[in-house]
Each structure stands twice: as structure tokens, then as C-alpha cells.
Design goal:
The complex is a heterodimer. By secondary structure, chain A is mainly β. Chain A contains no helices and 11 strands. Chain B is mainly β. The chains are: A mainly beta, B mainly beta.
Chain lengths: 114, 112
């Protein structure tokens, strides 16, 4: 299994509070991704990173920000959590970008915003 | 944002049956097609990455084909086993979007 961990694994928070999710990899892969998984929508890309301090928006980036200060860590921040951000969040990594490299997924973080 | 569709949404088969399901994607600017297997309470795991029209890939009893001109891929499972029960996701990557777009998945349930 690819060495990807996510923390926390479960979190309940209140509307309006900031939340940060962490993805940590031990594979030294250049690309990292944050997805959210919702019923009826499959996996949707929030943001991705193609190197330290290099990030870009995905399909559903509104209300989220990311940071990558080290190769191994990719942080996802909800600046002010809303109930619509209740979801399961998956981090993924790949050796290269461009779509030809398979992605390896972390175990997921279940976030509930009350 | 691409429109990637999978059918059927769910499928129940008996152990030993062979089955197949479909992934449809826009053929313009196509670059790659991914298949993932996602067991309940686990993370998605890559099965195949396919790029060339006519590509056919196989892993054990599971195989996949790709038609980039008409924009579809088939996943086949021969002699389904209960451990094949999972959601199978496809995802398309094209040069315009520069990201993987996932379909909604096909949930396969294999009865012993």
C-alpha cells in the first residue's frame, strides 16, 4: 500500500469554524490531490498540487484553500465551514501529472459540519 | 468539466456469472482513461490506466477495453466472485481540463 495517511479520520465541527485536514505521504510523489465524495457525485477534485508551493484549483474549489510547504504534506483548509461541506474527503498522490499516472488514495476523512 | 457517465449504476449477479459495465466520456481532447476498484470502507485502488484507442488491459479475471474515437470503455469481469463486490469507478483525463473527472461509479454485488 502507498504510504498515505490522513488526519483526522473523523471530525465534527460547527458552521463558521475553520477546519484543516492534513494529508501526509511517504512516497515522495510530486503530485497531490484533494477530492470530496458525495452521494450521486462520485469523486470531485477540490485542489491539487504539482510541487512544493505549487497548487491549482479543481472542479469544486470555492470555500477551500490548500497549502504545500513540504513534499510530504498537503493541507486542505475550510476557512469557514458550512453544512454543504459535510462530506468524505480523500487525498491522493501520483508520481507524475498529465493523467497517465495512476493515483493512490488515502483512507479518507469524514467531516460533519453541524 | 467533463461529463463522464457510467452504467449501470448498480448490478447484482450470481457467483460465477460474467459481467460488464460501461464508461462513457467525451472523445475530444482525450488523453487517458482510468479504472479504479473501491471496496466498502476502503480507498479506491487503481486497476488500469489506458491511453490508446483499441487498448485492452487485463488483470486476472478483470479486463478493460478502450474506444477513444467514440468515447467509451468497457470493464469485464469473468466468473464473478463475492470478493469482486465493490464500486468500480472510471475517470477521464483530457488536455483541456488538466484533471481527472470521475464518473458516478457502478456498484457490483456478487451473491454466493
Amino acid at each position: 500500500d502507498a504510504g498515505i495517511t490522513q488526519s483526522p479520520r473523523h471530525k465534527v465541527t460547527e458552521t463558521g469554524t475553520p477546519v484543516t485536514l492534513r494529508c501526509h505521504q511517504t512516497e515522495n510523489h510530486r503530485y497531490m490531490y484533494w477530492y470530496r465524495q458525495d452521494p450521486g457525485h462520485g469523486l470531485r477534485l477540490i485542489h491539487y498540487s504539482y510541487g512544493v508551493k505549487d497548487t491549482d484549483k479543481g472542479e469544486v474549489s470555492d470555500g477551500y484553500s490548500v497549502s504545500r510547504s513540504k513534499t510530504e504534506d498537503f493541507l486542505l483548509t475550510l476557512e469557514s465551514a458550512t453544512s454543504s461541506q459535510t462530506s468524505v474527503y480523500f487525498c491522493a498522490i501520483s508520481e507524475s501529472g498529465g493523467g497517465r499516472a495512476e493515483q493512490y488514495f488515502g483512507p479518507g476523512t469524514r467531516l460533519t459540519v453541524t | 468539466i467533463l461529463n463522464v457517465e457510467q452504467s449501470p449504476q448498480s448490478l447484482h449477479v450470481q457467483e460465477g456469472d460474467s459481467t460488464n459495465f460501461t464508461c462513457s466520456f467525451p472523445s475530444s481532447n482525450f488523453y487517458a482513461l482510468h479504472w479504479y476498484r473501491w471496496e466498502t470502507a476502503k480507498s479506491p485502488e487503481a486497476l488500469f490506466v489506458m491511453t490508446l484507442n483499441g487498448d485492452e488491459k487485463k488483470k486476472g479475471r478483470i479486463s478493460a477495453t478502450l474506444n477513444t474515437k467514440e468515447g467509451y470503455s468497457y470493464l469485464y469481469i469473468k466468473g464473478s466472485q463475492p470478493e469482486d463486490s465493490a464500486t468500480y469507478l472510471c475517470a477521464s483525463y483530457n488536455n483541456a481540463g488538466n484533471m481527472l473527472t470521475f464518473g458516478g461509479g457502478t456498484r457490483l454485488m456478487v451473491k454466493p
